[in-house]
């Protein structure tokens, strides 16, 4: 029924075809591709949650004689029961040269044949996330001549474990500017790595990196190192505009000097207790700061800065709802912006000193007044009179 429907649509002007929960075989795949080639306006083909019974040994050689329009191919959750026996797909290489965007997600891809990668000459966007690519297989997949036009590459949630090798495997991709290798398992990283020269965006979040080194390329404009248990950040990244440090162990804001062009930063869910006016103002170009979900110590100094810093409400992401005091105990759970400590709490030493000074002055005044108006003599006379009144009267003789 599905094949008949596709045949009916072969001469239609549809721009996108989506196959969902479809059963494919080595016999039906060539027929489907032949039908899609006849569709004059077709731009995008999508396959979601489909099953393929076969190994890619298709009976006919598929030629790209007619299809000049398809640019986008999306394959998500394709189940290939015998994926380990799957062929290198030489039969479809001729269909690939015009594709500009390819997504093959959660499909147990463990290798992209070098020849196949080399035929993807127009490819600008490639998403291979949630697959089984390892360090060696990535090196083979990204061989010399592979993906020459690639600008965006997503390799998140694969089986990569060597950051140095990953960078080196991709270093020849001259146009690559955005790389997502998050949710891999890199661990400790070396001090020196090789990267694509035009890399601007790097996502290495959730990769078990305990400490950042100069392996991170200095060309970056956007860096995401969230969820890595980092305790500090001190990299020299002169072009960096966005920095994401969510879910780490930072106790203070990073220094501004090594990242002078920073525009946006997230330090959400760290161990930040407070930050000062000096730290905040040292980021000259800062437009957005997400410091929410930290355990703030609402000291007088911190509250004074927060309440009086001009425009801070427009800079802080999530303000005021997600900025909550953890201490002192009396204000725990209250929003930082709503807390106002008393004069006694903020300036206890000064208040005590003033009270002591006032008491001392009052005593001096009383002494001076008493001296001037002979208060001491009057007090003595009053005391003598009281004593005389208390003496018992003598009995008459």
From TrEMBL:
<dbReference type="InterPro" id="IPR032675">
    <property type="entry name" value="LRR_dom_sf"/>
</dbReference>
<dbReference type="InterPro" id="IPR003591">
    <property type="entry name" value="Leu-rich_rpt_typical-subtyp"/>
</dbReference>
<dbReference type="InterPro" id="IPR000483">
    <property type="entry name" value="Cys-rich_flank_reg_C"/>
</dbReference>
<keyword id="KW-0472">Membrane</keyword>
<keyword id="KW-1133">Transmembrane helix</keyword>
<dbReference type="GO" id="GO:0006954">
    <property type="term" value="P:inflammatory response"/>
</dbReference>
<dbReference type="GO" id="GO:0005886">
    <property type="term" value="C:plasma membrane"/>
</dbReference>
<feature type="domain" description="LRRCT">
    <location>
        <begin position="294"/>
        <end position="347"/>
    </location>
</feature>
<dbReference type="GO" id="GO:0002224">
    <property type="term" value="P:toll-like receptor signaling pathway"/>
</dbReference>
<keyword id="KW-0732">Signal</keyword>
<keyword id="KW-0812">Transmembrane</keyword>
<keyword id="KW-0391">Immunity</keyword>
<keyword id="KW-0520">NAD</keyword>
<dbReference type="InterPro" id="IPR018247">
    <property type="entry name" value="EF_Hand_1_Ca_BS"/>
</dbReference>
<dbReference type="Pfam" id="PF13516">
    <property type="entry name" value="LRR_6"/>
</dbReference>
<dbReference type="GO" id="GO:0038023">
    <property type="term" value="F:signaling receptor activity"/>
</dbReference>
<keyword id="KW-0325">Glycoprotein</keyword>
<protein>
    <submittedName>
        <fullName>TLR2B</fullName>
    </submittedName>
</protein>
<dbReference type="Pfam" id="PF13855">
    <property type="entry name" value="LRR_8"/>
</dbReference>
<dbReference type="GO" id="GO:0043235">
    <property type="term" value="C:receptor complex"/>
</dbReference>
<comment type="similarity">
    <text>Belongs to the Toll-like receptor family.</text>
</comment>
<keyword id="KW-0399">Innate immunity</keyword>
<dbReference type="InterPro" id="IPR001611">
    <property type="entry name" value="Leu-rich_rpt"/>
</dbReference>
<dbReference type="GO" id="GO:0042497">
    <property type="term" value="F:triacyl lipopeptide binding"/>
</dbReference>
<keyword id="KW-0433">Leucine-rich repeat</keyword>
<feature type="transmembrane region" description="Helical">
    <location>
        <begin position="350"/>
        <end position="371"/>
    </location>
</feature>
<dbReference type="GO" id="GO:0045087">
    <property type="term" value="P:innate immune response"/>
</dbReference>
<keyword id="KW-0677">Repeat</keyword>
<keyword id="KW-0395">Inflammatory response</keyword>
């Amino acid at each position: 029924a599905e094949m008949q429907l596709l045949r009916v649509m072969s001469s239609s002007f549809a721009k996108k075809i989506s196959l969902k929960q479809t059963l494919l075989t080595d016999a039906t795949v060539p027929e489907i591709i032949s039908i899609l080639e006849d569709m004059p306006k077709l731009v995008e083909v999508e396959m979601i949650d489909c099953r393929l019974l076969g190994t890619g040994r298709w009976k006919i050689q598929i030629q790209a004689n007619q299809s000049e329009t398809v640019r986008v191919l999306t394959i998500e959750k394709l189940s290939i029961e015998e994926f380990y026996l799957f062929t290198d797909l030489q039969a479809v290489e001729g269909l690939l040269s015009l594709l500009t965007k390819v997504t093959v997600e959660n499909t147990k891809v463990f290798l992209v044949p070098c020849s196949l990668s080399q035929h993807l000459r127009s490819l600008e966007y490639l998403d291979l996330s949630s697959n089984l690519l390892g360090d060696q297989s990535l090196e083979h997949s990204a061989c010399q001549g592979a993906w020459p036009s690639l600008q965006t590459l997503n390799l998140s949630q694969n089986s990569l474990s060597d950051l140095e090798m990953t960078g080196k495997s991709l270093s020849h991709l001259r146009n690559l500017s955005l790389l997502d290798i998050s949710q891999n398992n890199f661990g400790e990283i070396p001090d020196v790595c090789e990267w694509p020269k035009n890399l601007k965006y790097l996502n290495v979040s959730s990769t078990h990196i305990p400490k950042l080194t100069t392996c991170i390329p200095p060309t970056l404009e956007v860096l995401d190192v969230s969820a890595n248990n980092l305790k500090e950040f001190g990299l020299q990244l002169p072009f960096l505009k966005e920095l994401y440090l969510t879910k780490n162990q930072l106790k203070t804001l990073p220094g501004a000097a090594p990242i002078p062009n920073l525009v946006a930063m997230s330090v959400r869910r760290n161990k930040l207790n407070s930050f000062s006016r000096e730290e905040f103002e040292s980021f000259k170009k800062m437009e957005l700061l997400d410091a929410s979900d930290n355990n703030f110590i609402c000291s007088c100094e911190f509250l004074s800065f927060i309440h009086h810093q001009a425009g801070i409400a427009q800079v802080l992401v999530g303000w005021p709802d997600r900025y909550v005091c953890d201490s002192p105990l009396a204000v725990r759970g209250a929003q930082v912006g709503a807390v106002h400590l008393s004069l006694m709490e903020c300036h206890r030493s000064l208040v005590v000193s003033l009270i002591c000074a006032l008491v001392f002055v009052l005593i001096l005044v009383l002494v001076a007044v008493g001296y001037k108006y002979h208060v001491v003599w009057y007090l003595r006379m009053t005391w003598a009179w009281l004593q005389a009144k208390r003496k018992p009267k003598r009995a008459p003789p």
